[in-house]
Amino acid sequence: MLRSTRNLVWPVLAVLFATLLSSTAVAQSAESDAGETKRIVVVTWRGCEDACQGFLNYIDTTSIDAEIILRDLDKDRTVLPAMVEEVRALDPDLLVTWGTSVTLGMIGTVDGDRSGVVTGVPTVFMIVADPVGADIVDSYKRPGRPLVTGTRNRVPEGTQMRVLADYRPFDKIGLIYNEDELNAVLKAEEIHRVGAEQGFEVVERVLASNANGEPLVDDISQAVADIAAQDVDFLYIGSSSFLLANADLLTSSALEHDLPLATAYEAMVRESNALIALASPYYNVGQLAGFQAEQILADGKSPGDLEVLGLDRFTVLVNIETARALDLYPPMLLLRYAEIVAGSE
Q1: Which region, left, alpha or beta, applies to residue 199 given φ > 0 means left and ψ of -120 to 50 means alpha?
Q2: Residue 19 scores a pLDDT above 60
Q3: Rg for the chain (alpha carbons), in Å?
Q4: What is the average pLDDT across 329-338?
Q5: What is the DSSP letter of 215?
Q6: What tens digit of pLDDT does each residue of 164-191 get?
Q7: Domains along the chain?
Q8: Does the global pTM surpass 0.70?
Q9: Cβ atoms 143, 292 nearer than 8 A
């Protein structure tokens, strides 16, 4: 029978890393065939959300005797150098990174400088929209790095656009994104390529930024207004942690302009007022990362020999309250496979 305990684990370098206000540490124990405790450090961007919980729950069901140490950047990239130093000092059996910014900051790129990143530690990344485009791995089949593998969580943009066409035919897509996130830029480029292939126009609006290159919340409403003025059929949000964090402002602005908002983020439909999402549930992505970790820690496989995995099935969600507000009800074809949700209250 699996036995699990969770206790606080204090940082090894407590004084040096006192600024890591959001750091949490969790220990998990289970009977392991080898009887050896494996130390896993999980570094997240915005807390232990669904993917992180999916990972923890998966490890809890395995035979791995695991001490899991959680660290969170609280969306602050300046913490990354200190986090790298802490992981080096902890010397874990496995490092798990959440998101593109965290992954690049912790382990760098395929051929990048290794002086400021973690080396020599097996690593599994998750919630990285385009690990090949971000140069984290060479390919999905062969990561090209002996100690790195992970999961890909994003639905291809071509598939996204085909699902939107099932909702209603369109000729013009509006796109808003911020340039300080590599994922956002890569996905914008992909949408333009898909538009050329599928024969629709893409109208984009890059969010204004401050002197530090950070996008401005105050520009979101104006950006939506600018896109709406272009008579687009849908506003699409492909990848942006910033816009996800400001989903209520974004989606309410879209509703004010009678603009249907489509997204790759499940939460924008479930918890806010986006119309439709085609998404990989984050919890399932975390479970997939847990499976990767099990192969490494329990089965002794090398990360570099493991494919970068993605989910085989995606979830289509439609916010019925938003559909009513827009007088844009989903057709019967879409209702055959979509999940209807009420969205935010």
Answers
A1: left
A2: no
A3: 21
A4: 88
A5: B
A6: 999 999 999 999 999 999 889 988 999 9
A7: 38-153+282-310 (3.40.50.2300), 157-279+314-341 (3.40.50.2300)
A8: yes
A9: no
